[in-house]
Write a structure and sequence with these properties.
Strands 5-6-12-10-11 form a five-stranded antiparallel β-sheet. The protein has a three-stranded parallel β-sheet with strand order 1-4-2, with helices on one face. A hairpin with a 2-residue loop joins strand 5 and strand 6. By secondary structure, it is an alpha+beta fold. It has eight helices and 17 strands.
Length: 279
Amino acid sequence: MALHTTFQVGGPADFLIKARNAQDVLAAAKAAAEADAPCWIIGCGSNVLVADAGLRGVVVQIGSDMASIEVDGEIVRAQAGATNEQVAEAALAAGLSGYEFASGIPGSVGGAAIMNAGAYDGEFRDVAVSVVCLTPEGELREVSAAEANWGYRHSMMMDAGYIVLEATLHLMPADPDEIRAKMDDLRERRTSKQPLELPSAGSTFKRPTGYFAGKLIQDAGMRGHRVGGAMVSEKHCGFVVNAGGATAADVLGVIHDVQAAVLADAGVQLEPEVRMWGF
């Protein structure tokens, strides 16, 4: 799984299926259920930490074969495998604004829908109309924005074990030059402040109410803290990075050390944003 996650760590999965369409996802999920085996869904693998022992069961990757994007007026329909950058670029080409915030989020539309991805004062729920999902019972279901119950890094689909296959977004017409300028500005802010040069899963911890995780970690003296090949980024303390040859155990060790240090220093319990599989 190190080959399929942005942390570039994680042991082998029993089976990896690269889905070509919704029927492949349905067939894989059904086969896993019949075998009483876990079924794991990944897109870009950008918010996942997989254990060194790997994953038992079936991993289904929804990627480039399920990445079509259609624009109809102010409506954008994107399959779950489309990347956030691809959707933002398609919106730009159509003169539509509203998805710029996600242009630099290193993940797919499916992951953005499940986690209610957000950055720079924008969130997936701000523009989402509905998502088409595969339920654990093997049925296709369209979930409206109201039903999705999007919150901070959370959704009804996450709780219910739904697999997102497609999303419908409502964006607003705007000057393409202004849209591009905003995307360029956000890209520059990310590049200058985030450790994009090293493998990571993005922001490692959720934002505690009333605080910023990165500042809490810095104040607790954990900038640069290292376990094996994993470390708290020197550039942005909210990121745990693979500084070279890290194992999943190294990453988890840094996470636990940071949690303990921040709890002792500020009395705040940091909660990981990264989803941990196979531990």
